[in-house]
Amino acid sequence: MSSMGSAKVNSLSNPRTSLTLALITGTVVKKNRPPAWCDRILWMGNDVQQMCYRSHPLLKLSDHKPVSSVFQVQVSIVDVEKHRQVFDEVSREMDRLENDSIPVASLATNELVFTDVRYREEQVKTLEVSNVGQVPMQFSFVPKPHENSYCKPWLWIKPAVGFVYPNKTVKINMTVFVDTESVSMLTNSQDRLEDILIFHLEGGKDYFVSITGRFVKTCFGMSLDWLFEQNLHVREVPVADLLGGGVLEAPSVTGDAHKRVQIPKELYWLVNYISERGMETENLFLESGTRSDLTHLVEFLDTGGPGVYSIHRVPITPCDFHAWLVWNASKYIDDIGNALNMCCL
């Protein structure tokens, strides 16, 4: 609580009389009006003690003589050096508390490399992420600027979002799978097995993960017109031709020009294989091969290497086209046989 006081006049003025002692010319002058209460000093505060109070009659500028008083008070003095030290300590503690509240992750690696990725063959690698902070962390993969997806279509990430408690680790599977939607872009080098992923922490910083790989070119997914123009196996075609920089001569056989092969060699091999080994097979086109069968078939068509397969391994037939294929196969089987015989002359 603060106190309030008033310094009082001792004997120089008396508010109950009409006389005022004034030292103007050394004589007492009678005044016909009461004196003013301008000889008070007001003060307020804690630990304030009045030491003295006095008037100053020697000052002759006015008939009201000024008064003065001396007080003893206690004030707070700031130690600048100590204040700086305390401020620095508090700032460091606040920074530590703020840093402890920020999620922090540790990635086992920031680069995943996939080798010899083939058409419709999955390759899986695992990215381990640990929570090394003091608080739980929520993560997600976010798109790069001006992009809608956080990864390319041939890459699958599971889980793409998650929640990890402190001192725990999550395993994220990165699966590369090239299907019919992306195979042609990779084969003709319009796209590459390269991507940069942004691993984002909610309330924290972003981490970058590099994905690289080598794709094994394949004839699957390429147009029949493009295959017809190549006289090399697809893995032997120069990159310049894959990008449209040149067109190779169409395949031909020795003999007259009318005996020139009129279909892509890959399609010819398939039809010829069916013609030689599958015409007597029951339930043709009703059964499909396994994934390993498709792998051997793709390797054979892309390299021209030897391969002997069950006749059911050759076609992977969509069910929607089954009836149409059976009807056309029975109707034009003679024409196909004659065309194959001409090509083999």
Structure characterization notes:
This protein has 345 residues and is α+β, with helices and mostly antiparallel strands. It is built from 7 helices and 13 strands. The strands form 4 sheets. It has a 5-stranded mixed beta sheet with strand order 6-13-12-8-10, with no helix packed on it. The chain has a 4-stranded antiparallel beta sheet with strand order 5-7-11-9, with no helix packed on it.
Keywords:
single chain; 345 residues; alpha+beta; five-stranded mixed sheet; four-stranded antiparallel sheet; 7 helices; 24% helix; rod-shaped
List the helices and strands and how they pair.
Elements: E1 3-7, E2 41-45, E3 48-55, E4 67-73, H1 80-100, E5 105-107, E6 111-117, E7 123-131, E8 137-142, E9 155-158, E10 161-164, E11 169-176, H2 183-187, E12 194-201, E13 206-215, H3 224-228, H4 239-242, H5 265-277, H6 291-303, H7 322-344
Parallel strand pairs: 6-13
Antiparallel strand pairs: 1-2, 3-4, 5-7, 7-11, 8-10, 8-12, 9-11, 12-13
As a percent range, the share of strand residues is: 15-25%
Mean pLDDT: 75
End-to-end C-alpha gap: 120 Å
List low-confidence stretches. 7-27, 245-260, 311-321
Count all strands and give the number: 13
Helical stretch tally: 7
Share of residues in helices: 10-25%
Structure summary:
With 345 residues, the protein is an alpha+beta fold. 24% of the residues lie in helices and 24% in strands.
